[in-house]
Amino acid sequence: MQDLVILTGASRGLGLAMARELIAPGRPLLCLSRQTRPELSELAKARGATVLQWSVDLADPAPVAKRLHLWLSQLDAPSLAGATLINNAGVIPEIRSLEHCPPEGIAQALRVGLEAPMLLTAAFLNASGAWVDAGWRGLRKVLNISSGLGRRPMAAQASYCAAKAGMDHFSRCVALEEAKRPHGASIVSLAPGVIDTDMQVQLRAGDPADFPDLGRFQQLKALGQLSSPEQAASQVLAFLRHPRFGMEAVADVRG
């Protein structure tokens, strides 16, 4: 029996670190990212594992969700012990007040950070729900990678904060829906802590005139208070594997 994992944003940062850790025999991994990473295919070959990589644009998520639904519908569900969707992809727009953000940047942040996770979650639950209706009894999980900025406002990042707040709340709603269904899926929106990724580099390069929190992010780096992507990936995946996963729809890896 195999445990299927679908992971978005697997080409860099936390997503890449999670992909590396997830590649293992008996755990087919489907990565959805704008770019593919040859190293993941090479790692899968070395470990005797299966990895598929789709080069997709999550700023245009409807076709991606449709493709995912079709792909899931054609799988041999009885061969799977479980299936997990990890919505990790996200982008930050320019670090500026909302009135000065280009409309396309606002739209991209919301499409990648909120619309794509909602559409992919809907496709995943619908397709795997058909397996359940046919008698399949594997575990289904949805892990949404959120942020403390979805729970605490920050100037100059309204779009990113709004996307993560929306992710938290849609997770709460779906958790209520799934709790009413026999063999429903477990869903959690998880803040992974502060991680030393390209996103942090962007934040530390902000203009103090536009970004009043600049000093705080620079201090986190200077004091060594950022987790590495590898450390964060291990914590997030340990949370995913915990027997109590899904008991709370919104959580923080730091407790």
Give an overview of the whole structure:
There is one protein chain. With 255 residues, the protein is α/β, with parallel strands linked by helices. It is 45% helix and 16% strand. Strands 3-2-1-4-5-6-7 form a seven-stranded parallel sheet, with helices on both faces. Helix 1 packs across helix 8 (229-241) and helix 4 (103-133) runs parallel beside helix 5 (158-179). The longest helix has 31 residues, at 103-133. The relative contact order is 0.14. The model has no long low-confidence stretch (mean pLDDT 93).
Task: Tell me briefly what this model is.
This protein is an alpha/beta fold and 255 residues long. The protein has helices spanning 13-22, 38-47, 61-73, 103-133, 158-179, 198-204, 214-222, 229-241; strands at residues 2-8, 29-33, 51-55, 80-87, 139-145, 186-191, 250-252.
